[in-house]
Amino acid sequence: ILTPGQLFISCREPFDADEYIERLAWRTPGGGSKGGAEAFDPKRLLEEFENHIEELKHLDEKIQRRVEKLEHQCHREAKEFAHKVQDLQRSNQVAFQHFQELDEHISYVATKVCHLGDQLEGVNTPRQRAVEAQRLMTYFNEFLDGELRSDVFNNPEKIKEAADIIQKLHLIAALHDLCKYHDLERQLIQEFTAAQRRGEIGRMQEVAAVLLHFKGYAHCVDVYIKQCQEGAYMRSDVFEDTALLCQRVNKQVGEVFQSPETVMAKLIQNIFENKLQAHVKEKLDETRRSDVEQYLKNLYDLYTRTTALASKLTEFNLGSDKHTFLSKLIKNIFSTYLESYIEMEKDYLRTRSAMILQRYYDSKNHQKRPQGGGSIQELKERIRQRTNLPLGPSIDTHGETFLSQEVVVNLLQETRHAFERCNRLSDPSDLPKNAFSIFLLLVEHLCMDHIDYALEIGLSAIPSADAKNANLYFLDVVQQANTIFHLFDKQFNDHLMPLISSSPKLTECLHKKKEVIEQMEVKLDTGIDRTLNCMVGQMKHILATEQKKTDFRPEDENNVMIQCTAACSKVCVYVSRQVERVRKSMDGKNVDTVLTELGVRFHRLIHEHLQQYSYSSMGGMLAICDVAEYRKSAKDFRVPLVLQLFDTLHALCNLLVVAPDNLKQVCSGEQLTNLDRNLLHAFVQLRVDYRQARLGRHFS
């Protein structure tokens, strides 16, 4: 049996009295409530409880003594810690008082030193000024007497000291014309120029430092800029020459002048406003009116190379806002050209696109038909395109689709160049608007004037559904239009989207693209629908001319080969050829969609065709052979629905040959059980023995 301490430890936290009693009773022999090894003994359990209570009392007293001991120890240590803290506070207060006294003393000494320094400076400064004034007065008297006796004015080696004196005397005698000032300034500039030609950096630095206080310092910088450009532009590439010149001069400027960033900025400004501006004007003005294409290419090239040069020049120290400085220089050169850029771009693109299209139609000896007129003939044409009504003969295009990938590539290439120029030459705020206007021209010439026009011609060339031996070229139009539109979509994503993706023009572009796609899809759907009608019409013509009534009611039933009829063979060959054409003309889900529609119409035609004949027993077998062959053709569609339709039709044909007593069983089969009873009855009625065998009773 566990002691109270051990039992406490074995209990889970927090302490639960009921659980504690249960555990105690469970561990006591005879204390179990539901039998076990020993029977329940209440006396023994009571005795155990009383003993345990006594032990708990002793344990409680023991713990209480321990708690009192720990509390006493804690109070004692708290008092000792409080005494230590008080001692530390007193020590800290004494140290702080000493620090304050030291700080006050230091402040007092510093005040005395500053006062003494002020007194010394107050005495020394007037003295130095007096000495300097006396020296300048002596030199001034020499100028008044007209005799320069001092060595500083007569010794060429002391030109720096003389320049300093002359500068100060010039300020003093501003009302007097001291020719010596200007003569000396001119001599200094000449000396600087000569030193520059000799390549004496040290002498140039010395003279420039002297001239810094003269009015002619700016003239010195101008002379330096002019002279450093001599012989720098010997090649035909002015941009490369400029980059090399600036790289060479940058190091020298830092050694010669005290503010090299100002001199470097002035050099670059001089180059941009003279050399580059003259070069740009010469290149652009000669082609602006005579050759717009070359003008746009030159403008793009010059602007690109100028901005690239400016990017290289940012590595030099040109002041605090060098990017704005260089941007202004570029704007000053190209502003007049960029203002009219987008209009010239659109005019060129419009003219160029029209010329590409016209050249193509001329090569085909084709006179382009006007669209959107209001004549009766055009009204008839539009009605014929949207219906299957025979409103006149179709146009014979001789297999020409009037779509050219070469034309499309040329139009897309011209537009791509336009997008590239637009991205480079347009102001960022005008870029989305300009790109959108170029996109509209692409839509006009590629989508409307070429693709849409070809679709109109293709629709006009589709023969009526009852035409014989019709040539169906519209699928070729579909194939080429699909390829072309993939190219158009690629250019839209690759070249237009980056220019408008973060602007409101994105919505307009997407809406316009969607509108164009939907317009073309309507015409494509109309053309494909009418083409499928022509295919079905051709099949119907083959069946009408090749299928004979005796095919399914042979005169000699004992001498018949069980094989498909000639009409069936020709239809299957025709269907396979058309399925292959559809696969070549379309891609993706469009293939399955069109083949599904063609397969459904094919099935409907065969279903209706079979219901036109009556069948003998052997004729029914031949019909089954035909349907089996049709089903093989249906497999080429690779469309589950079409194959299922022909499987059902094959099952229906079994009704033509099955024994009369087995009709109900066959009609209840898996493939026929869900069909309309009238449809089953209609097929049974096609049997020659329908009335003789009274087969109708099986459907009563």
UniProtKB/TrEMBL annotation:
Domain Exocyst complex component Sec10 N-terminal: 42-151
GO cellular component: exocyst
Exocyst complex component Sec10-like alpha-helical bundle domain sequence ranges: 180-698
Key words of the record: Coiled coil, Exocytosis, Transport
Top-level division of the source organism's lineage: Eukaryota
Coiled coil spans: 46-73
InterPro entries (UniProt xref): Sec10-like, Sec10_HB, Sec10_N
GO biological process, any: Golgi to plasma membrane transport
Family of this protein: Belongs to the SEC10 family.
Protein name: Exocyst complex component 5
Organism: Oncorhynchus mykiss (Rainbow trout)
Lineage: Eukaryota, Metazoa, Chordata, Craniata, Vertebrata
